[in-house]
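In response to a reviewer's request, we include the raw inputs and outputs for one of the modeled complexes. The two entities were modeled together in a single run.
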Amino acid sequence: MAVLVIADHTGGALSDNTHKTVSAAKAIGGDIDILVTGKDCKSAAEAAAKIEGVRKVLLAQSDDLGHGLAEAIEAVVVPLMSGYDAVLTPATSQGKNFSPRIAAKLDVSHISDIVEVVDASTFVRPIYAGNALETVQSSEAKKVITVRPTAFKAAGEGGSASVEDVDAGAGAGATKFVTEEIVKSERPELTGAKIVVSGGRAMGSAEEFQKVIEPLADRLGAAVGASRAAVDAGYAPNDYQVGQTGKVVAPELYIAIGISGAIQHLAGMKDSKVIVAINKDGDAPIFQVADYGLVADYKAAVPELMTALG
Amino acid sequence: MKVLVPVKRVIDYNVKPRVKSDETGVDLANVKMSMNPFCEIAVEEAVRLKEKGVVTEVVAVSIGPAQAQETLRTALAMGADRAILVQTDADLEPLAVAKVLKAVIDEESPNLVVMGKQAIDGDNNATGQMLSALLGWPQASFASKLEIAGDKATVTREVDGGLQTIEAPLPVIITADLRLNEPRYASLPNIMKAKKKPLDAKDIASYGVDIAPRLKVVKVAEPPKRSGGIKVENAADLVAKLKNEAGVL
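The model returned the following structure tokens for the whole complex.
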């Protein structure tokens, strides 16, 4: 048994999602190798080599891989699969973009977004926006899986695997990269943050959202999130969106401010360790999942919270 | 130029799904069903392309039971020109859906496929990517903006931490993300007109595609319930509890 884990990194900085996916691979068992794809990303491969329990790290680099184009990554992975029984990718936007292509090329199912490994061929995954958990068993020769990182603990460090270059493949073919706009932020990344402060439609405007939510997040060293309603209304950018249609988070502490708690939002945050809700409507559904609820207008409550934090 | 839009009939997104007591699946008996929201966005985008004069024909296709005709009529009422129902009572996995769509595409030869990025029942987010890989057509997933000029598509995509723009020659597979557009409501006259638009029903067997399930569903269970906690009096009380009781500050 051998499992290939595809690393998640940003410009050569290895993401914790990789460590978490290695944990899922360990639950499957067998030898674990990591593939790092990108451009100028040797540092990510070196960091991956330090993850405990990794046999070796494969590094494929090209321009198209640097832009994360799905066709280019598939072209690297598919030939490698003769040596592996399973390939695991963190279920990030990028992972979701290319992983199903690998399954199609290998003529096997794609097992999306697993949250638990029952055994080497049985996996649990959320369906219906997390309103149900489906346990599926695969008898196929190769398993192509995306892993929900927040559902697994990060594998530790202390390994010293070798790094070897592999063929960077034929590129993305007809698909061409044009531009990229990545929002630069000093704040922690939303899906990996220990604390998340989210705002909802009650904010009423983008200015209010920035004035209320962001200082509190910065005081706590937290990432900023938003409900879909706040995003749809233009108060916050789409990549802040927490929920079924946005990002799934599971921080130590989740603070929902002016968020009513629609099913679609709860699907994205209900696995948080501690949930705090501040809402002036005491009947809002968010209070049904909150460990600590404060029924109050955020306009008064947030400044008081800042004061209480000192 | 022709655009093909696959659409799926799913549980209405406002309905809370209930797991069957025997844990074999989600109870869909007597539950309101609607077009998958991401598919609606795809239909809207295709109809807008027609209104802009970029495409001349919008063909909606659904793979599902006889009732999926209702979903196709919705697409026709939104502005699709004709519809194809590939009829089956089986529950198809994304790989099988991609293979059937490929067979439909081989017959229809569209220049473009616009489809939802995922269905809100299975939440797989896989069919579009699989279809692209099977056809060897370029893939532009999670689209928030689409422009077609000549034989080239320029697509802005939602990626981790921001937006990415790519371009690809037609034919191409686009999967729609939420911000691509806001779908219209079909007007009553258009709903009436849609009843007269052509809808071809075909037996899935006529495509000769292997649709047998690959995965065995062992069980479908309720997620662990999270119970509500306590209400605190004020912000100071909240901070004290987070520090001393929960230990998260």
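As requested, we also summarize the result in words. Chain A touches chain B through 90 residues (CB under 8 Å). The first strand of chain A starts at residue 2 and ends at 6.
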